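During the reporting period the student researcher (J.K.) took over the structure-prediction task from the postdoctoral fellow and processed the backlog of single-chain submissions. One of the processed entries is reproduced below for the supervisory committee.
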Amino acid sequence: MLAAVIAVSSLPHAAHAAEPSCDCQQSTGTCSASIAVKPVEATTLGSYASQLRFTSSAPACSKVNYHVDGTPYFNVLVNGNTGADTIWGQKQISRANITEISCQVCKQVAMTPAPVEKKPENIELKPTLFDGQWAGAGNNSFGSAQRWTLSFATTAAGKAAITGTMEGNFPTVPISASGTVSGGTLSWLDQQTTCSAKLLTDVSLAFECHGQGSVQMVMRRQ
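J.K. obtained the following structure tokens:
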């Protein structure tokens, strides 16, 4: 699965509040962060696990960058200033293994759903530049390779259906969600994972997801 932190607040179903999203390609300032490490029991034979607890001075939307034995990682705290993640390795990770901690405040944007407009059945929906199949590969915040294949299809004005798969060193994960299109950005929430796709050209887009993991890559039209 993915590998970064997301702190999601629990909202009543009747509230219909817009889910927040963090655009970490746009930094609005710096913050300070600390990381506490607690060893946990690993379930995979021959590996060790440690729980990382993050605390940021920013109230929300902070990206914590750090190195574990020289390997860079990052975690995004979306809805609060604390979060937790688990990291695995061939040896036990302690606080001494974590260096170069830095923190940036990401631009916070509200994923406001587009109003649903009732249209006559005989009016055909116009596809957007997102419509079609896209694919890309990259490493998540644990350093594990992933390949994403996604299909976007317009379902209503400002709305799109997202389907596809995520492949890596684990069973293939199916993707199914409904997203909001705003200008050149398509955003969606899949359980506790916040994702966005931004058009770079008509054949490429910048894709990122933050949830129980983080991943960023360039996807290309297939």
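The committee noted the following: The chain has no helices and 15 strands.
J.K. will present the remaining backlog at the next meeting.
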